[in-house]
Structure formats: structure tokens, C-alpha cells
Amino acid sequence: MKTKKNLTSLILPVAFLILVFLLDQLIKPTDSMSMLLTVLQKGSVYALAAVSMNLLNGFTGLFSLGHAGFMLIGAYTYAIFTIPSQARDSVYQYFDALIRVSFPEVLSGALGGFGYVLGIALAVILAGAIAAVFAWLIGLPVLKLKSDYLAIATLGFAEIVRAIFQWQKLGPVTNGSNLLKSFERTSTFRITLGNGTVISFATFVPVLIAVICISLIVRLVNSTYGRAFKAVRDDEIAAEAMGINLARTKQLSFCTSCFFAGVAGAMMAMVLSIAQASNFKVAMTYEILLMVVLGGIGSISGSIIGAMLFISASEWWLRGLDSGSFLGINAPGIFRNGFRLVVFSLIIMVVVLFFRKGIMGDRELPEVIQGWRQKRQSRKRRAE
Amino acid sequence: MLRIKDLTVNYGGINALRSISLDVPDGKIVTLIGANGAGKSTTLRTISGLVKAASGSITWNDQELIGKPIDSIVSSGIAMAPEGRRVFADLTTLENLRIGAYLRTDKDQIEKDIEWVYSLFPRLKERSWQYAGTLSGGEQQMLAVGRALMSKPKLLMLDEPSLGLAPLVVQDIFKIIRVLNEQGVTVLLVEQNANMALKIADLAYVLETGSITLSGSGEELLTNPQVKEAYLGKKN
């Protein structure tokens, strides 16, 4: 029973990844279905961000609103360490670039194609690690705070980070208020074969990173540490009486969550092809929080579903509401810029009214499917 | 053996404990009785490290406990089932038990101990996949005791296990306390239900506003006129 469950949980992601890889090759940028690729790319960024926020807010009960700040740190770290040396001076046009190393470049020089992949992986991991180091430092004072106060403190931190990254004095590292570009991004993740055919990994890479990271988070949540997180969330005093070190457990959850927020930030840079501090506003944190709440606080599959639905709706399905025609209805007078947001907000209100605990509540997808199966079986038995 | 000497604890600006001394010999059931606010729970919380002592000493097998972090106190073999049960409501019964073994690393033995707890409380086995928040009060108390047992304590501290439970359920809980004691677990029991507590206790202490006013064997205190009047509601 258990091995069967393990096997399906392995086969499903692999099958999904193969499908994404094929879609990457089949859908051309000019197709109308190319929106699907955009949604998958952005969706996997936000899915990871939402799951990592849920780890903190849903599983450990620490209400933090600093996610955009940590994603910003991740995005900048990734971008800075993957800008090729030729492009560096034109990117840092007003400054003398301080960090003059590009991981993919250096490693592909030494190891070839494998080195390139390794370099990207290293830059992504470093993005997470630096976000986690910042999290550890900021966690020392603020994790003593409870609920709303923690939210305010982390929110303030995220805003400070955004301001500091735009500071001209730090220009040699962060390029000041100018954006970072020309680094390794999804549109450069491709192999050109001898006969000129191009194999694209533009969607595959972010989806792969998201799948790996989310499965790591799932493992963590189901481990002894994950149980300790939930115990701290449910009752701090009882958890302490069991010998759980509150400060250490909270710090662990906070740093882990921010590590994955940093990775999500790196993915964001990859997908958007630019890294700019002014993109990482508080509104981004709120969007992620909305995905977590829509999906269900304390449900990982809920966060993924929430993120995918949110991105699909805002980027794709409801686009027509802004551009004149929607579902075959032509009403340029009403369907103008901004109308999409009105409808979107209404949909969210309706969803929240009907699913009070989010779409998934605190259950996970496998449990729900198993529930359906059991119901169907018992119905069958009754019919017999 | 646990020995408390001249322990003073200040708690939110008041003297919760004023220089109390008491012994909990190995293999015995010791009970602390007293009115609300007498300092019973504070004593337990100080032993487990949740509350800091102002002065005095608590030694456990000749090792000083004051100043030690909670996790090392738990792993030295002292476990507490806190007042009001405090089970983890959104975790299943089984997960609650596993949290009790949080500091242990001997996986095989943990599985055996889960079975041991289930054999003590067969009801918990039936509820194994249920969220603890959906259990009845009595089942939650069983779970709180079972969870404390999962750290394999030599000394089990129970803070008002009878609180808010029906008399029959209280009897069940006390039966289990006796069974555990026969299996070699030392029990330090804090109770409002003085009658039940004194009946099973080898040794009993009466706390009044932070000081110990009486001590003796359970039977002695049961027949003590002062105790009878103040805690057992009987007049001579």
C-alpha cells in the first residue's frame, strides 16, 4: 500500500514534467496556446512562493508578510551571478560592476554543457541561501513577536530591503534603481542541434525547480520537524513542554520558508528576464497571501491550485475583459482596461463565500481523491 | 529521586512559591493538593523548566535542574501532561503521540511505545487517525497522558488530570495512573480532587498560598481533620 502510494507520487510529477517538456517544443510563441506556457512559467513561480508562505503561515502559525522582500533578494542574487561578462558593462552602465563572476559562464568554460546547468543551479541555490541568511538575521529579533506584530515587522523589513536595493550607493552591486537584465533567463534555456532544430527548456526549467522545491517542502512537512511546526502552531506551551525548542523551531521554519521564497525570486527573474526592485512591492506579498487563502491555509496542494488558478485567471482567461471581447461577447464600451480586475475581485469574493476555508481547506489532494473513491465504492456496494 | 529544596518562584509580581521543600522518591505516587492559586501548577511548571525559579534548588538524581533548558529536562526523563490537556487539536491522535517522542531518535522503540500507549488506552487506538480536537474530554486527557508517556519518562507529572471529566472517566484515569506506577513510573500528581488523589498517593503534600502546610502518607492526610474540613468537605 505504502510503496504503491510512493510510486504514484513519483510517477505523477515525472509524467507532468514530460508533458511540460513536450508542450515546450510543440507550442510556438505565436500560437494562441502560448499563453498556457506563460501561465505554467509564472504559475510555477507563484506556486512555490505560495507553498513557502504556507509553510510559515499555515503550518507554523507565524503570520509573516515579508515574502516579496525575500523574493527580491533571491531575484537579485540570481541575476547578479548569471550576467555574462560581455553584457556586464552595458547592464551596469552607470556603475563599475563589483561582482564580476557568472556561475554558468565560469562552469561551462570548465565543464561544458553540464557546467552551464550546474552554474544555473548554483545561482538558484545561492539565491535561496542568501535570502535564508537575511531571514535568520531578521528572525533573531522579530520571531519573538506574535501574530499581527510579526506581520508588521516583516512587512517593514520587506519595504526596507526594497529601498536599500535601489540605493545609488550600492549601485556597483545592485545597479541602483536601474534594472538588471541580460542574465541567463528562460529564453536562453535552449539547445540548438546540428541541423538547426531548437530544443527549448523555457517552461521546463521553472516547472522543474518548482516541482523539486515543493516536493522537498512536502517531505519537510511530513517529517518530525513538520510535526513540530504544527505543534508550535496549535499550542506553544504544550509544544515547549514536549521538549520542542520554540525559538529554534520558529527560526528553522522562517529560514526554510525564506530560502524557498528566494528560489522563487530567482525563478521570477528567469521568467520575467529582468530583476527590478520596484517590482517586488507589498502588493506581491498580498497576491501570494491571497493564493494561500484561496487554496486553503495549511494545504500544500491548495496553495498550488490557488496559484495556478490565480495566474490563469489574471493572465489568460480574463484577458478579454480588458480588450473588448470576452467569451464571444463584444462590448468594447464595458470591457475596457481595468474591468478585468473588477470581475476578478468579484470572483474571489464568491469563491471565499462558498469555500470558507479555501478550496482545499486543510486537506491535501490525495486525501480528497481517496475520499471520492471511497464514496463511489460504498455507493456501488449499496447499489448491489 | 526528585528533591526540591527551598524553592521560591515569583510569577507575575506575586510570590507563587515561598521556599517550599519536598521529595518525590522513586517508584512512588506523590500528590500535591491545595486550593486554586496555591502554587501546585507553578511547582510542576518550574520542575519542567517552563517557569524560572527565583531561588532554591531542584535536583533530579543529584543533578540540578534549575537553569537547564526544557529539552534537556525532558530527555533526562521528566514529562508533564499540562493542565487543561492542551492536545494539539489539528494533529491526529497518532501525530500527537509522535510529538511526545520528539526528542527521541530510537525509531523502533518509538513504534513499540506507541503500541504500549495503545494497550494502556485502547480508545486511542480506535481514534488513531482522528484529529485530537474532535476527541471527547476524557479521550483528550488520555491522549495528554499518552503523549507525555511517549518520552519514556521515569517521572510523570500530571496537572489536574480529572479536570472537567465525568466521575467514571476520572476513575479510569486514576486506574491507569496506578498501572503506570506498577510498571515503574514515578508519578507526581497535582489535583483538586483531593479524595481521589489521596487514596492512591503514597506521599502527599498540602500547599496553601505558596507554602507547604502539611505532609504525610495519603492515608494519614485522608483522616487528618484539617484536610477533611478544607479539602474533602467533611465535618467531624
Structural summary, described in words:
The complex is a heterodimer of chains A (384) and B (236). With 384 residues, chain A is mostly helical. Helix content of chain A is 68%, strand content 3%. Chain A is globular, with a radius of gyration of 22 Å. The model of chain A has no long low-confidence stretch (mean pLDDT 88). Chain B has 236 residues and is α/β, with parallel strands linked by helices. Chain B has one domain (2-231): Rossmann fold. Chain B contains ten helices and ten strands. Chain B has helices at 40-48, 70-75, 93-100, 107-120, 122-126, 137-149, 167-182, 194-200, 218-223, 225-231, and strands spanning 2-11, 14-24, 29-34, 55-60, 63-64, 78-81, 155-159, 186-191, 203-208, 211-216. Chain B has a six-stranded mixed beta sheet, with helices on both faces. A four-stranded antiparallel beta sheet of chain B has the order 2-1-4-5, covered by helices on one side. Classes of the chains: A mainly alpha (384), B alpha/beta (236). The interface between A and B is medium-sized, with 19 and 24 residues.
The low-confidence runs of chain A, each spanning 5 or more residues with pLDDT under 50, are none
Q: How many beta-strand runs of chain A?
A: 4
Oligomer: heterodimer
Q: What low-confidence regions of chain B span 5 or more consecutive residues with pLDDT below 50?
A: none
Largest beta-sheet details of chain B: 6 strands, mixed
* Number of helices in the DSSP assignment of chain B: 10
Order of helix and strand elements from N to C terminus of chain A: HHHHHHHHEEHHHHHHEEHH
Main interface by residue count? A-B, 19 and 24 residues
Number of strands of chain B: 10
Number of helices of chain A: 16
Mean pLDDT of chain A: 88
How would you characterize the largest beta sheet of chain A? Answer: 2 strands, antiparallel
